[in-house]
Design a protein that fits this description.
The chain has 588 residues and is of the alpha+beta class. The chain contains 19 helices and 21 strands. Helices cover 34% and strands 23% of the residues. Strand 4 and strand 5 form a beta hairpin.
Length: 588
């Protein structure tokens, strides 16, 4: 027992993973650890033991409850450490506690609970393979808070009703949710057939079937599905001669003069096709290699890797196809194997599966990067994609119809850059608080724009403060943002300024339309050389400016000065390629 009081999480996990017949010896292995948990008041020791047990049981859904667990769990549930409480609850699920299961189901359905707590409850129930969750999942797919997590969980349940809801709701999903839905829909033969029928009917856009989705469909190993895939997608080039011809043709197209390539748009293409697996400039997935330091400036190197990904495959990146007893098919990279479980990284998540639930594991000589990656891209998409890969530093991501949901999620500052210390998100509002700054600060949005319309409600308090909305701008050294700014602040409302450039471009004020210390609807339209703005439906800027930038970032300013103030922004509407007219004028 003295040894157990000095146990670490790694030690506990090792003890459990070393037992090849753990399910039969749970009491023998765990009872001494549970006794320590019951006796000790050392929060760190409790946490280490719970982490170790959790790691050792990872992937297990039903393990016999060790002696004394219910008493220990009752004590640990009162711990001031939230992580201790969470691990205790999750282990109770693995041990089949009906009380823990019921509590989590209640939390899941409690719409007054914190969104993060509801998501955590869903993830815990999924990990525990709660039999009651299957019937609940179709409804959860239409719950705004839980939809993302529910879509990822959908592939784990062999229920046609879930597939039908995914297809019916598909058009309402964000780009990321659509991708997760397609991965779920290609994980089972019955799901895939329904999905392909929806593609033929036009309910799912054929272009949404990226190369890895098509590869997953082929990995279902069903002749009728493969035939239908080739009808919808086409066959992949297979011979070395054809690949070399394709590389030569694409190189000629990429290097053809006469068009200015756009790395910002290329980054958006990269995010759609590669970022889920590869990291570049610190952003992206960890399934494939980090390509930040690769030879991206060499066009031959890039094209050979993209168009012939299976030519040279490091051992760590070869795929396997796993089939489960409930007819689920998962393609990915096996990261870890023990006698009890395997851990496989798929295109959108890492799963730990009990070996007892697996029927076959089929190793492949193929790379995780699928062939046909760029087959569905336009020539302009490919050129911009290659241009982005050749950059020497990160560039902003251009807004497209596929990524607009990344602009502002209403929950946090994920994807935003610049000094964040004076900014927060609360109740769907972006809030900047200035304590009285010595120099200007800018919070930079995740997306850049060219032709766009932005409508947002703004509240400045007190009106003596000063802020602004930058657009078609660019970051400079030391956090400075250069470019157009639609001004916010007493004496400045409705004016147009070029920050760190030509200064005041439109001097007429929109002050008369402003509701002091209240919400004001600000509209900005930029199409080609034309810029128009309005406040509460009252037109302000209306000018043609041929000298200004036509593309760049959006950012929000906290102006320097001794006066503390707060600026709030909400109800963002970002529209791409609009008509060059104001909407709010018609609605005043």
């Amino acid at each position: 027992m003295r040894f157990l009081k000095n146990v670490t999480a790694v030690t506990v996990a090792g003890l459990l993973l070393a037992s090849s017949s753990f399910a039969q010896s749970a009491n023998d292995t765990l009872s001494p650890l549970v006794a320590v948990l019951s006796q000790s008041n050392d929060a760190q020791l409790q946490l280490d033991i719970l982490k170790g047990i959790s790691e050792g049981l990872k992937g297990q859904s039903r393990v016999s409850m060790p002696k004394g667990w219910e008493v220990a769990a009752k004590k640990l549930a009162q711990s001031p450490d939230a992580k201790v409480q969470e691990l205790t609850r999750n282990l109770s699920l693995i041990f089949g506690s009906s009380t823990a299961m019921a509590d989590l189901r209640d939390r899941l359905q409690d719409k007054s609970a914190k969104p993060a707590d509801r998501v955590a409850a869903l993830q815990a129930l999924v990990a525990a393979k709660d039999a009651g969750l299957e019937a609940m999942l179709p409804a959860l797919l239409n719950d705004a808070v839980l939809r993302g997590a529910a879509i990822k969980a959908a592939g784990g349940f062999n229920d046609g009703a879930i597939a039908r809801v995914l297809i019916q709701s598909y058009a309402k999903f964000t780009a990321a949710e659509k991708r997760d839905a397609l991965i779920a829909l290609t994980s089972r033969v019955s799901f895939a057939k329904d999905m392909l029928a929806a593609v033929e009917q036009g309910r799912i856009d054929r272009k949404d079937l990226s190369a890895d989705i098509v590869r997953q469909l082929r990995d279902l190993n069903q002749a009728d599905i493969t035939k239908q895939v080739e009808k919808v997608w086409g066959s992949v080039r297979a011979t070395p001669a054809e690949k070399l011809a394709q590389i030569a043709k694409m190189k000629k197209m990429v290097q053809k003069p006469g068009r200015r390539d756009d790395p910002m748009h290329g980054r958006a293409v990269f995010a759609r096709t590669c970022q889920q697996c590869h990291t570049l400039y610190g952003e992206g997935g960890k399934i494939g290699p980090d390509i930040t330091g690769s030879n991206r400036g060499d066009i031959d190197y890039i094209l050979h890797n993209i168009l012939d990904p299976n030519a040279e495959i490091p051992l760590d990146y070869k795929t396997s196809t796993v089939e489960t007893k409930d007819d689920r098919v998962i393609t990915g990279i096996i990261k870890q194997q023990t006698e009890q479980v395997i851990t496989i990284a798929s295109a959108n998540e890492t799963l730990t599966l009990p070996r007892k639930d697996i029927t076959t594991i089929r190793p492949s000589e193929l790379s995780m990067m699928p062939e046909g990656l760029v087959d569905q891209l336009s020539d302009n998409d490919v050129r911009d994609f290659i241009a982005y890969l050749a950059t020497k530093s990160q560039v902003p991501m251009l807004a497209t119809k596929d990524n607009l949901d990344l602009f502002f999620n209403g929950k946090n500052l994920d994807g935003w850059s610049g000094p964040k210390g004076n900014w927060k998100v609360e109740n769907g509002e972006l809030i900047g608080t200035s304590p009285g700054l010595k120099k200007n600060e800018w919070l930079v949005a995740p997306l850049a724009v060219n032709n766009f319309r932005l409508i947002v409600e703004v509240k400045l308090a007190p009106n003596a403060g000063n802020s602004g909305i930058q657009f078609r701008s660019e970051t400079q050294p030391d956090g400075i943002v250069k470019g157009y700014q639609a001004d916010v602040g007493v004496g400045w409302w409705g004016k147009l300024y070029e920050e760190h450039g030509r200064a005041l471009l439109w001097k007429e004020s929109g002050e008369k339309a402003v509701k002091t210390d209240d919400w004001n609807t600000y509209e900005i339209v930029a199409v080609g050389s034309y810029i128009k703005t309005a406040i509460n439906g009252q037109p302000c800027v209306d000018m043609e400016d041929t000298a200004g930038a036509k593309q760049g970032i959006i950012a929000f300013q906290l102006h320097s000065g001794n006066v503390p103030f707060e600026v709030r922004l909400r109800k963002f509407q970002l529209e791409l390629d609009p008509k060059a007219e104001l909407k709010t004028v018609k609605n005043r």
